[in-house]
Design a protein that fits this description.
With 262 residues, the protein is mainly alpha-helical. The protein has helices spanning 10-44, 63-66, 74-94, 96-117, 127-144, 147-160, 176-193, 206-219, 238-242; strands at 253-254, 260-261. It is elongated and about 110 Å long.
C-alpha cells in the first residue's frame, strides 16, 4: 500500500519492492487456491460439477462462489494459470486499493450474470475472472492516463488482447458467457474505482521549475518596479539652481563659435 514516489531514491526503491512482493504474494495465493482445489478433487475422486454454476437452478447458486475453483481438465487449469497470475499481480501492484474492491466485484457479478442469462449447462473455470482483470486493467489505463496505468494497459492488451474475441460465442464447449460477464464486470469496476488509488507523482523537469519561479517572482511585490512618484530624484538640473538648490552638476563645453557654455 506504500505510495509511489517520483524520484528514484532509496526509499522509493524499497517501497516499490514492497509493492512487488505483496502483489506477487496475493497473485500466488489466488493461483495456489485453484491448484489446490483441482488437486484435491483429482486425488479424492470428487465430482466437481456440483460446484459449477447451473443457470437458473437454485442448487447452482453455490457455483457463483465456487465455480472459479473448478476446472474441467488439467489443460483447462494450465491455460488459466499464467493469465490469472500475471493479471492479478499487475492489478495488485498498480492499484492495490481498487483491486480489493474490483476482484470480489468481478467474482460475484460475473457469476450472477452466468446464473441469470447463460445457456443451460454447467459453467466452471476462473477464465471469467481473468477476463475481468484484463478489461479492468485496460480501462484503468484509459481512465487514469498516468504513465504507469498506460504502460500496464498496453502490456495487457499486447499479451491478452485476444480475450476481446473470446467474449463472443465461438466454441460450444467454452463458456463465452462467463468471459462476457467477467469483462463487463471488469469495465464497471474500472469506472467505479479508478480514483481509489492516488495518482503517482509526475516528474518535474528543470524548465518547469524555472517557469514557476519566474511566475512567483513576477507576482511578488518585492520584485515590482516602484511607481514614478516614489522614485527619489537624484538630479533636478537647472531647476534646482533656481530654487537655490546645490545639486546641480556644473560642466563646461564650447560650441562651434568658440563660446563657452555652462
Amino acid at each position: 500500500m506504500a505510495p509511489v514516489i517520483r524520484e528514484s531514491s532509496a526509499t522509493a526503491i524499497r517501497r516499490d519492492r514492497d509493492r512487488v512482493f505483496w502483489a506477487s504474494v496475493g497473485a500466488a495465493g489466488l493461483v495456489a487456491g485453484i491448484w489446490l482445489a483441482w488437486l484435491g478433487a483429482w486425488l479424492l475422486g470428487w465430482d466437481m460439477d456440483d460446484l459449477g454454476i447451473r443457470p437458473r437452478d437454485a442448487h447452482g447458486l453455490i457455483g457463483i462462489l465456487t465455480a472459479p475453483f473448478v476446472h474441467a481438465s488439467f489443460a483447462h487449469l494450465m491455460s488459466n494459470t499464467l493469465p490469472l497470475g500475471l493479471l492479478a499481480a499487475l492489478a495488485l501492484y498498480a492499484y492495490p486499493r481498487a483491486t480489493r474492491f474490483a476482484l470480489p466485484f468481478i467474482w460475484i457479478v460475473s457469476g450472477m450474470g452466468v446464473w441469470l442469462w447463460a445457456r443451460p449447462s454447467i459453467h466452471v473455470g476462473i477464465s471469467g475472472i481473468a477476463h475481468g482483470l484484463m478489461f479492468f486493467l485496460f480501462f484503468m489505463g484509459l481512465l487514469r492516463r498516468d504513465r504507469l496505468a498506460i504502460a500496464i494497459a498496453l502490456t495487457v492488451f499486447f499479451l491478452y488482447g485476444g480475450m476481446v474475441m473470446t467474449v463472443l460465442p465461438r466454441d460450444p464447449q467454452v463458456s463465452f458467457e462467463y468471459h462476457l460477464f467477467g469483462a463487463l464486470a471488469g469495465i464497471l469496476a474500472a469506472f467505479a474505482w479508478h480514483k481509489r488509488d492516488p495518482q503517482p507523482p509526475r516528474k518535474r523537469y528543470s524548465w518547469e521549475i524555472e517557469e514557476e519561479e519566474a511566475k512567483h517572482a513576477a507576482a511578488d511585490p518585492e520584485f515590482d518596479l516602484p511607481l514614478p512618484e516614489n522614485v527619489p530624484t537624484l538630479w533636478d538640473g537647472p531647476r534646482a539652481a533656481q530654487r537655490g538648490g546645490d545639486n546641480v552638476v556644473p560642466f563646461r563645453t564650447r560650441n562651434g563659435d568658440g563660446e563657452t557654455l555652462h
